[in-house]
Amino acid sequence: MTIDPTHPRAASLRIREQLAWGVEQGITSTAGLIAHGRGEAFDYLLGEKTHPFAHQAIEAAVAHLFLAKHPVLSVNGNTAALVADDMIRLAIAVNAGIEINLFHHSAQRVEKIEHYLRQRAEAIDPVAETRILSHLNAKTVTLPHIASNRKITLHDGIATADVVLVPLEDGDRAQALKEIGKTVITIDLNPLSRTARAATVTIVDNITRALPILIQTAERLKEASYEDWVNIITHYKNEKVRTMAIKIIRQQ
Ligand code: PTJ
C-alpha cells in the first residue's frame, strides 16, 4: 500500500505495513500483529512521542551496555520486521551480540529471521554479520523459570550474557533473567507489562523511535569515562521512570 506522507497517521500506517510485510515473509508471527495493536494503543495514550522519562531510560540502558562484559540484544519477529537495521547498528555501537529468541518458536522462523538479519548486516557493514549469533549447530542452554520456548537460549548468547536487551514482550523472561543475575533492559510501550515491571531499565517508547535514539546516545556516551557510566546507572531509578510513564497515560 502506498502511504500518503501527509496522512496524519502516516508513521503508524507505515509500521503496520512493515509488520504485515514481516508476516508475509514468515519473519513475524500472526500473534505479532495483535501484540502490535496493544503497543499502538499505549503509544496513542503517550502522544506518539518520546518523553523525557524514555530519554533517561535510554541513557541508563546505554551505560549498562557499555559497562557489560558480554551484552546481547534479543530479537523476536516484531523487532526483526520493524528495526532490523537499527538493531544491527546498535550491536555495532555497543559491541553486542544479537540472538534470535522467539516466543512462538519454530526452527523455520528462526532460520528466516537469521537469513534476513545477515542480509541486512551485509548491506550495512560486512563485519556486522559477525554480531549475529548463529543457531546452526549451536550449543544451547535451557534457562530455569521460563515457561515458554524463550527458555532455550544460545550458550554464547543470552545464556552467558551479563546485560540483555529484551524488547517487545510481556512475560516471565525478564524476571527469570534477573533471578540468574543478569541486567535486563526492555523497550515496551506498556509500562504495566510483566517485562516492564521486572526489568532493570524500562524504556517506555515505540521501538521504532527508541532505537535511533539509543544509537545516537551510544555515539554520544562512547567517549565518556567508566566513572561517568557508573554514575548514570547509580542515579537511575527505574520505578520513578515507570511511574512517570503511567502518570502521562492517566492524564489522557
Ligand atoms: O516473534 P515472537 O514469536 O517472539 O513473538 C513476539 C510477540 C511480540 C508476538 C510476543 O513476544 C508477544 O506475544 O508479546 P506480548 O506479550 O504481546 O508483549 C508485547 C509487548 O510489546 C506489549 O507490552 C506491547 O505493548 C509492546 N509493544 C508492541 N509493539 C511495540 C511495543 N513496545 C514498543 N514498541 C512497539 N512498536
Description:
The protein is 53% helix and 10% strand. It is built from 10 helices and 7 strands. It has helices spanning 10-25, 30-45, 52-67, 77-94, 107-124, 173-179, 194-198, 207-221, 226-235, 238-250, and strands at 71-75, 97-100, 140-142, 152-154, 163-165, 183-187, 201-203. Ligand PTJ is lined by residues 29, 31-32, 35-36, 38-39, 42, 76-78, 102-104, 168-171, 187-190, 193, 206-208.
Short description:
It contains ten helices and seven strands. The chain is an alpha/beta fold and 252 residues long.
The average pLDDT is: 97
Strand line-up in the sheet with most strands: 2-1-5-6-7
Largest sheet: 5 strands, parallel
Oligomer: single chain
Determine Rg (CA atoms, Å).
17 Å
Helix content: 40-55%
* E-strand count: 7
Please indicate the percent range of residues in DSSP E strands (runs of 2 or more). Answer: 5-15%
Unreliably modeled segments: none
* Bound small molecules, deduplicated: ligand PTJ
Shape category: globular
**How far apart, in Å, are the first and last alpha carbons?**
31 Å
SS-based class: alpha/beta
Number of helices: 10
Helix-strand string: HHHEHEHEEEHEHEHHH
Write the layout of secondary structure elements.
Blueprint: H1 10-25, H2 30-45, H3 52-67, E1 71-75, H4 77-94, E2 97-100, H5 107-124, E3 140-142, E4 152-154, E5 163-165, H6 173-179, E6 183-187, H7 194-198, E7 201-203, H8 207-221, H9 226-235, H10 238-250
Parallel strand pairs: 1-2, 1-5, 5-6, 6-7
Antiparallel strand pairs: 3-4
Helix pairs in contact: 1-2, 1-4, 3-8, 3-9, 3-10, 4-5, 4-8
The structure holds ligand PTJ.
Residues 29, 31-32, 35-36, 38-39, 42, 76-78, 102-104, 168-171, 187-190, 193, 206-208 line the site of ligand PTJ.
